[in-house]
Structures are given as C-alpha cells and as structure tokens.
Design a protein that fits this description.
binds protoporphyrin IX containing FE, about 170 residues, iron, Globin-like
Amino acid sequence: MRPRGGEGRGGEGRGRAGGALGSAVMALSAGDEALVRALWRKMGSNVGVYTTEALERIVLAFPSTRIYFAPLDLSPGSMQLRAHGKKVAAALSVALGHLDDLPDALSALSDLHTRQLRVDPTSFQLLGHCLLLTLARHYPGDFSPAMHRALHRFLTHVAWALASPCG
Ligand code: HEM
C-alpha cells in the first residue's frame, strides 16, 4: 500500500520507529512515478556511481553517520564504498519496482537497518538528501521542481519503509 499524505502508511507509521518520518511521507502520483522512472532509465548502469557519491557525501557532510560504516574503508572512491553503493542502488531499483508493496519488498533490509544496525531514522533522510543533491548536480537540466518533488517523495517513501521495523 502506498502512503497517502498524512493517512495510510503515514498514519499507520506514527506508532512505529519511522513514525516521525511516516507523517511526512506523501504518496507518489502517477506523474511523480513517471519522472523517477525516466531519470532511472537515463542513469542506466550509473545509478551505483551516484549512490556511491551520495555515501561519500553523507559521511563527510554528516560525520556522525560514519559510525555505522566503521568496518568499511570510507576514503572517497574506495572499493568497499563503491561495492556498497552498488548494493544501495540495486535496493533502490527494487523499491522503484515495488512502490505498491514497499514494506514487503524491503522487509529484510528494514530488519537489517533497524534491528541489527540500529540506524537512526534521521540518517535515512540524510542519505536521501545526499542522493537528491548528487542527482541535481549531475542532471541539472532534468531537475525541474516536479522532478525534485518526485525524487523527494520516492526517497522519503523508501526511507520510511526502511526505518519502520516489520513484525
Ligand atoms: C536509501 C536508503 C538505504 C538503502 C536503499 C540501503 C541499502 C542497503 C543495502 C542493499 C545493504 C546491503 C545489505 C546486504 O548486504 O544484505 C545495506 C547495508 C548497510 N547499510 Fe544501508 N541502505 C540505506 C540507508 C542506510 C543508512 C542511512 C545507513 C547509515 C547511515 C546505512 C548503513 C548500512 C550499513 C552499515 C550496512 C552494512 C554494510 C556492510 O557492513 O557491508 N544504510 N544497505
């Protein structure tokens, strides 16, 4: 089920760990979805390049997030960071294909991030912000206000699903 501004998954989320985020989650309209899909097609196999750049940015701009990645080599361009960026990219592509059942599609990842890694819900928003900024820098011509809103909604939607422990 998709979030409906302030109701649906947003309302349902208020009692869960992603609650504060849940109330801010807006549904993706058909137009939003089309814009995100178009950008994904344009990025092709480079999605992982940009997610890697977003990871590089989050640990530099928000150093408190480094603690989660302590086992990884966080130097820009490191093999580990690039490998991790590819995993994040693959997960986002899965999410884009499952907008109607995100909690199910991301349940294992949500479990990993909330129960095992205990990632602070705010960090998901920060990573979404870093990715949004990265994409705006690489695709300035595509980054209309409508694209900005569509990506923001998509990334907030994913963040909400990941930050909400299942079961
Ligand atoms: C858009 C949001 C995110 C997505 C799609 C995502 C996706 C993933 C994926 C696919 C994995 C690999 C899972 C596996 O190997 O089975 C992973 C692992 C991990 N994620 Fe995330 N993640 C997100 C946000 C975050 C945030 C915000 C943090 C912390 C600030 C974080 C920290 C980690 C860590 C520490 C690992 C384990 C890395 C390792 O030791 O290999 N993730 N994530």
